[in-house]
Amino acid sequence: MTTTDPTVRSLADDYVRRLADLDTRVATSLGTHPGDDRVPDLSPAGQEAVDELARTTLAALASARVTDDDDRRCARLLRERLEAQLAVSEAGEHLRTVRNIFGPPAQVRQLFELMPTTTPDDWAVVARRMARVPEAYRGYSASLTEGSRRGLHAAPRQVQTVVGQLDEWLAGEGGSWFHSFAAMAPDGVAEAVRHDLARAADAAAAATRDLRDHLAGTYLPAAAGTPDAVGPDRYRLGARLSTGADLDLTEAYEWAWAEHRRLDDELRREAETVLPGADVRTAMRHLDENGPAVDDVDEVRAWLQQMMDTAITELDGTHFDIAPPVRAVEAMIAPPGSAAAPYYTRPSLDFARPGRTWLPTLGETRFPLWQLISTWYHEGVPGHHLQLAQWTHLADRLSTYQTSVGAMSGNIEGWALYAERLMDELGYLTLPGARLGYLDAQQMRAVRVVIDIGMHLQLRVPADSPLHAGETWTPEIAREFFGAHSGRPGPFLDSEIVRYLGWPGQAISYKLGERAWLAGRDAARAARGSEFDLKAWHAAALSQGSLGLDDLTDELAKL
């Protein structure tokens, strides 16, 4: 090694810059390429370019200088992430990626949700990018065609679901979702740009229809017979990608089953406080029909916004130190054709685009609050927003890689579940039914681990299960089991089963990530005793950047 060798952090930041040049999804998420009107290259050649960058970065990492603990953590993260991504690519997973949440078509559409749309010039960029949607979808079709040629297919269930989602996009106001988005251009946008937006929306809608027809008419017949379960080898690849850990799947399955049974008992006790003498499902139906609720989509968006604003005001200075840029967060309504689960999008690096939470309405106009409260502590404050916006705030101190591209589900979803638990510990779940909703959300995440591992590895249902004991997990058994142990509506549960089957190993990252966060906090508290300061621990924990579950607990214990 020589003194001219880069530090790990400078190498990691260079990787992000080069990746953003290759992949507009990264550039748009970070807000680093003003006026960027590109669409992602979803073809096999596009993936190969990203893989080559990963390989050259790994080679350079061998001689990069480690100057402090942040560099040390960054080096471990960068190496693990790039190796995991290359392993997934080498298995050809990008050639059969068809899923109902954050799949390639949805990633293309989401670019428009993340773009600036304030000025007439912004809308001219939107028009140019929208006109290129056909290019992105042709690249995606080329990847699926190459996967089909190699015998690598998504399961029919995934394909049928995405076809249905594309049908929803095409049924938007004015012709399609793209037409609806283009119609939002405000007064002051020149007629020439409006004309370009209309033509671009026509092109994007036509490309969506072509993709839909290709999936339904060509790809789906070729995929016939592809099993839903991916098997242990593919599952381990997916689980590592989402958790940053080589998991003992048997241990995780058995732990999650025990956690499910524990939560089942706690839910029964909580149901008694909601409606004495009622079982869990009856108490939940009572809350749906008689509990606090908000009518109207605009009203629920405003209610969620107020909830997050209040949390920021009350938590800042008591349990967190919230930097001024992080205080901005927006509640949004998800567009039609989204998956059923709420989600969060992070701010741009300059905070010109704030962090945002997104609520899929699923066509509903009345929203019982008992299930929304802990969910918005998860998606917003102190969950995803406080972590990911704080990382954005610290990107120049750590590295852009540690605070953005290197993020992984086990860490961020684990923190968000920890945030739900924290708000319960702090006494925030006071609205009638709110704590039952929190426990229901915890139960959902425990059941996710059980059925995700169970379906993909085709394990047997535990012998003490009240349903299908000793049988092999199937999607149908998983759906029945989920329905018996969740207060979520049927369409949500249907969407979730498809999600788990199409994104193996991601669903388990929530509960296993929370376990790692709690173990780290417990170890830090035990080490410091009466000197343990929760606010200081939160500040330090949210200032480390991304970590995989192989490292997270140990690093948190040192704080």
Overview of the structural elements:
The chain is mostly helical. The chain folds into two domains: 8-227, no CATH class; 240-509, no CATH class. Helices cover 63% and strands 3% of the residues. The strands form two sheets. It has a three-stranded mixed β-sheet. It has a two-stranded antiparallel ribbon with strand order 1-5. The longest helix is centred in the middle third of the chain and has 33 residues, at 191-223. It is globular, with a radius of gyration of 23 Å. Pfam families: DUF885. It comes from Pseudonocardia zijingensis. This is DUF885 domain-containing protein.
Helical coverage, percent range: 55-70%
Q: Tell me the domain tally.
A: 2
Succession of helices and strands: HHHHHHHHHHHHHEHEEEEHHHHHHHHHH
Radius of gyration: 23 Å
3D shape: globular
Mean pLDDT value: 96
Number of helices: 24
- Please count the beta strands (DSSP E, at least 2 residues each): 5
- Sheet bearing the most strands, described? 3 strands, mixed
Pfam families: DUF885
Protein name: DUF885 domain-containing protein
What's the helix and strand layout?
Blueprint: H1 8-22, H2 24-30, H3 44-61, H4 69-90, H5 104-114, H6 120-131, H7 133-149, H8 156-170, H9 177-182, H10 191-223, H11 231-243, H12 249-274, H13 280-290, E1 293-295, H14 297-315, E2 329-333, E3 343-345, E4 355-359, E5 366-368, H15 372-379, H16 384-393, H17 400-405, H18 409-425, H19 434-457, H20 475-484, H21 490-502, H22 509-528, H23 534-541, H24 549-557
Parallel strand pairs: 2-4
Antiparallel strand pairs: 1-5, 3-4
Helix pairs in contact: 1-2, 1-3, 3-4, 4-11, 6-10, 7-10, 8-10, 12-13, 12-19, 15-18, 15-19, 18-22, 19-22, 20-21, 22-24
